Amino acid sequence: MRLLRSTDLALRVLMRLAVAADATPTTRQVAADMDVPYTHAAKVVAELQHLGLVDARRGRGGGLTLTAKGRTASVGAVVRTFEGDGDVVDCEGTAGGTGPCPLNSGCRLRGALRRAHEAFFAALDPVTVAEIVADPTGPLLLGISRGPQTG
Q1: Contact 116, 88 (CB under 8 A)
Q2: What is the DSSP-derived secondary structure letter of residue 148?
Q3: Closest residue by Cα to residue 15 from 146, 135, 130
Q4: Going by C-beta distance under 8 Å and a sequence separation of 6 or more, which residues neighbour residue 151?
Q5: CA dist., res. 45 & res. 9, Å (int)
Q6: Rounded to two decimals, what is the model's pTM?
Q7: Could you write out the DSSP letters of every residue in 75-100?
Q8: pLDDT bracket for residue 142 (50, 70, 90)
Q9: Most CB atoms closer than 10 Å: which of 16, 134, 139, 146?
Q10: Strand, helix or coil at 66?
Q11: What is the dihedral of CA 90, 91, 92, 97, to 10 degrees?
C-alpha cells in the first residue's frame, strides 16, 4: 500500500511540529523544510487545523504549533482520515471508467485486501505522534529545519 502525498506530508508536518519546542514555524517554512509546494502544505495544514491537531496563527508572531491533541494523536487515525475509507482496489471500475470487474460477484481477493488494509491501520492505531519523534528521529527532524531565512 502506498500513502497519498497528503497523508505523508500530514505525518511529516506533525512530526516536525512535535520537535519544534518553542519555535513556531510558518506554513511556508514547513513547506520549504519538507521540500513541497506551499499550496500543498497549506491544504494539509488547514486539514490538520480543522482536526484540532495543529494551531495556526496568522500575522506577526504567528506560526504553527502542535496541540496537545496533536501530540497524542494516533498515527492510524491520522492516516485513516487522510486516506479515506475507500478500498485498496477499485472493483467497481469507477475510477478508471472501465466498469466493474467481471469477478466482482465471487471474488475473494477484495475481502482479503480489505482485511490487510484494516490490519495496516490497526498496526498504526496504538502509535502516537509523540512516539514517532522519540530519539533518534527527533534530533534528525531538527537538523532538517532551515530556520528563519536571512539575507
Answers
A1: yes
A2: S
A3: 130
A4: none
A5: 9
A6: 0.82
A7: HHHHHHHHH-S--SS-TT-TTTTS--
A8: low
A9: 16
A10: strand
A11: 60
